[in-house]
Amino acid sequence: MSQRRIGILGLGSYLPERILTNADLEKMVDTSDQWIVERTGIKIRHIARDDQATSDLASEAARRALNKSALKAEDIDLIIVATVTGDMPFPSTSCIVQEKIGAFGAACMDLNAACSGWLYSLDVAWQFVKNGRYRRVLAIGSEKLTAITDWKDRNTCILFGDGAGAAIIGETDGGGEIISSYLGADGRWGKLLYMPGGGSRYPASHETVDTRLHYMKMEGKEVFKQAVIAMARAAESVLQQAGMKAEEITWVIPHQANIRIMSAVAKRLAVPFEKFIVTVDHCGNLSAASIPVALDEVVSAGKIKSGDTVLLVAFGGGFTWGSMIVRM
Ligand code: UT7
Which site among 26, 200, 242, 324 is 20 to 30 Å from 37 CA-CA? Predict the structure, then answer.
């Protein structure tokens, strides 16, 4: 009997049309194009319209993934939306997406693992398909980070953008497959990257608004250091689990936060930086959406081909991390 292979049946992504350049940011805070490019690698980022919420970006990415896989919305059994910027505390953004795309046969859940969220959602999708509970799972990473960006804080406001990426996971007919997945977290680092306001700890009040608790806070330098260590370790762990060597990997798609983080991870892994996919220059940091957007972009451009072995690796608030090896 041939072995069941479970992998990516289709990919889609969506970036809002509006662009925010470094020159635009120079007019908003005390910064410069040169500083932003040198310290982060970011040149532009896409910004959602005021009337677009995370579910709108997610639904567009999902429609595109359905189109590319020639599947219908009614073929989807489960929708997972990985996000830290859901439309509202409840209902879940995945339920809102279900209505928008018409996938009424699907169960729905949101997943929060910050920038590692999409890899967590992909692993959950993989497990459900493997154990036979669901046939096709739509795993979306979608963020409207500009909704929680403090436009007065130059340490953070230059970093983030909006966007969504989606994959449909299911049984492939002998083609690609998910080979291995590794997830981890350490809650002791929670307050280095977080948004304190709006939950049950600090419900919205005049005071929480006045003290700017509804914006992202980050200790950039420490996050940078831990991101490099955790992503390199996560990559090594998933390779070890798969019994593979770094040389067997065709491409690496790391979470896109900062080009200097990516090049430090490449150095630690002794993988040539040419194998690293970089989209941070035109996307900024898209949190849970960064890896699926990058993956869809390079697959659509024909850079990643069928049969290529791709290592995905992420790090984010929590702290959380994750890595996955996928044969396309
Ligand atoms: O997505 C989840 C993970 N997130 C990340 O991985 C982000 C990780 N962190 C980073 O990418 C980097 O730490 C940043 C890009 C946020 C900052 O870069 P850095 O090299 O760590 O800079 P820094 O925070 O040490 O700041 C260096 C200097 C400071 O000035 P002084 O104190 O040396 O005079 C900052 O005030 O740069 C200053 N600075 C800026 N200058 C111009 C900070 N932000 C800016 C800015 N423009 N936007």
Answer: 324
Strand partners, 111: 82
Residues 280, 243 within the same domain: yes
User: What pLDDT shows up at residue 2?
Assistant: 55
Which residues, judged by CB distance below 6 Å to any ligand atom, belong to the binding site of ligand 1?
Answer: 31, 35, 39-40, 115, 154-155, 158, 220-221, 223-224, 227, 257-258, 261, 285, 316
The rounded Å distance from CA 159 to ligand 1 centre is 10
Pick from 287, 276, 275, 293: which is nearest to 314 by CA? 287
Task: DSSP for 195-227, please give it.
Answer: --TTSSSS---HHHHHTTTTS-EE-HHHHHHHH
What average pLDDT does the segment 241-262 reach?
A: 97
For residue 221, report the distance from its CA to the centre of ligand 1, in Å.
7
Q: Is residue 13 part of a domain?
A: yes
Count: domains in the chain:
2
CATH assignment at residue 54: 3.40.47.10
The pTM for the full model equals: 0.97
* Residue 255: active-site member: yes
Average pLDDT, the chain: 97
Name the residue of 24, 150, 186, 221 whose CB sits within 8 Å of the most ligand 1 atoms, as the mutation to test its pocket: 221
Q: How confident is the model at residue 47 (pLDDT cuts 50, 70, 90)?
A: very high
- 150 and 30 inside one domain: yes
Q: Same domain, yes or no, for 284 and 194? A: yes
Tell me the residue range of the domain where 32 lies: 6-173
- Alpha helical stretches, state H, the chain: 22-26, 33-40, 54-69, 93-101, 117-130, 154-157, 206-210, 220-242, 259-269, 280-283, 290-300
24 and 151, same domain (yes or no): yes
Is 1 part of a structural domain of the chain? Answer: no
Single out the residue in 143, 173, 203 at which a domain terminates.
173
Are residue 168 and residue 192 in the same domain, yes or no? no
